[in-house]
Write a structure and sequence with these properties.
By secondary structure, this protein is α+β, with helices and mostly antiparallel strands. The protein is about 45% helix and about 25% strand.
Length: about 325
């Protein structure tokens, strides 16, 4: 083959159809050329003096090509599955961030085996500062709530079932946040044998708790205003009206104490005339001074009693 040989044919075949097996059949190929051919991508070589071996070489070459194709397809499917898994994980992280969620896997000894990337920012710490065990986690809880989490963990261990618990957790900046934690055994564990590893989902529910508190407070204020409005309609005696207004503030508003004072403009003092609640003795101890009137009413300053100093306003 002047100007063209088997090695050039091999290079061209590998370029055009790399998956097609290539078998050298030659009468002159030596050991050195055979090694070059195999390194260049040839599947096999057969000497013309031994063509009886050709069918076996071709069959083996086709089988190997088929196996390579199957491996390539499997690898392609695996790559696609990995890409989809990475996409799902990225989507899960985004969803956890938006929902203010994190999770942690805990071993039988209380050590944190692993946790989500969203957990450190959820509680306001750097990744290396993340608590490494249930004991360290309890250290950042509100002292009044630690026993609640302990009790929930014990209940989950005894029953081997899912348990929900809410508590307060302190961030490094000193702010308190409300956490809802769902503790459940890892899938595949035998409840009868006792669960050894636990999956906990944690969610920051601070905004929801604050909104709930605001709603409760508004409902209390509405109940007080409604009760006093009804009282004004049916009660004509001023002393009874004022005392009942204070009682309604305590009963419906859930305040510790309520009082009403009248202005003595000459003495520049406010004189309490009605009160109700648990701190009524404080009424007799606090001097009330009247300061500069405001356009809509008067501002009142409560004098010192012990270490307390308060100010209130009326309209």
């Amino acid at each position: 083959m002047p100007g063209f040989d088997g090695m050039e044919a091999l290079a061209l075949a590998r370029e055009i159809s790399p998956d097609t097996p290539f078998v050298f059949v030659s009468g002159t190929i030596g050991e050195e050329h055979a090694i070059r051919a195999l390194k260049g991508g040839a599947t096999d070589y057969v000497l013309k003096s031994n063509l009886v071996r050709l069918p076996v070489a071709v069959t083996r070459a086709l089988e190997e090509a088929k196996e390579r194709g199957e491996r390539r397809r499997a690898q392609g499917e695996l790559d696609v599955a990995r890409d989809r898994l990475r996409e799902r994980e990225a989507g899960l992280r985004r969803a956890q961030v938006m929902a203010k969620l994190g999770h942690v896997i805990t071993g039988a000894d209380g050590a944190f085996e692993s946790w989500s990337e969203t957990l450190p920012p959820l509680i306001g710490v750097e990744p290396l500062q993340t608590p490494k065990s249930t004991r360290e986690w309890l250290d950042i809880l509100h002292p009044d709530d630690r026993e609640r989490l302990r009790g929930a963990s014990i209940e989950a261990g005894v029953k081997g079932t899912r348990v929900d618990v809410e508590y307060r957790l302190q961030r490094p900046d000193g702010a308190w946040m409300h956490i809802r934690q769902v503790i459940e055994p890892m899938p595949g564990q035998s409840v009868a044998a006792g669960s050894e590893r636990w999956f906990s989902t944690l969610q920051d529910v601070t905004e929801a708790k604050e909104a709930e508190t605001r709603i409760i407070r508004l409902n209390r204020v509405y109940a007080v205003l409604s009760g006093i409005n009804a009282l004004i309609v049916r009660v004509r005696d001023r002393e009874e009206l004022l005392k009942e207004a204070c009682r309604i503030a305590i009963d419906h508003g859930k305040f510790r104490m309520a009082w009403i004072g009248l202005v003595d403009r000459e003495a520049m003092l406010v004189k309490p005339v009605a009160w109700h609640g648990t701190d009524t003795e404080y009424i007799h101890l606090m001097p009330l001074g009247w300061s500069t009137p405001t356009p809509r009413g008067a501002a009142w300053r409560v004098g010192r009693s012990g270490n307390a100093r308060r100010s209130v306003s009326t309209i």
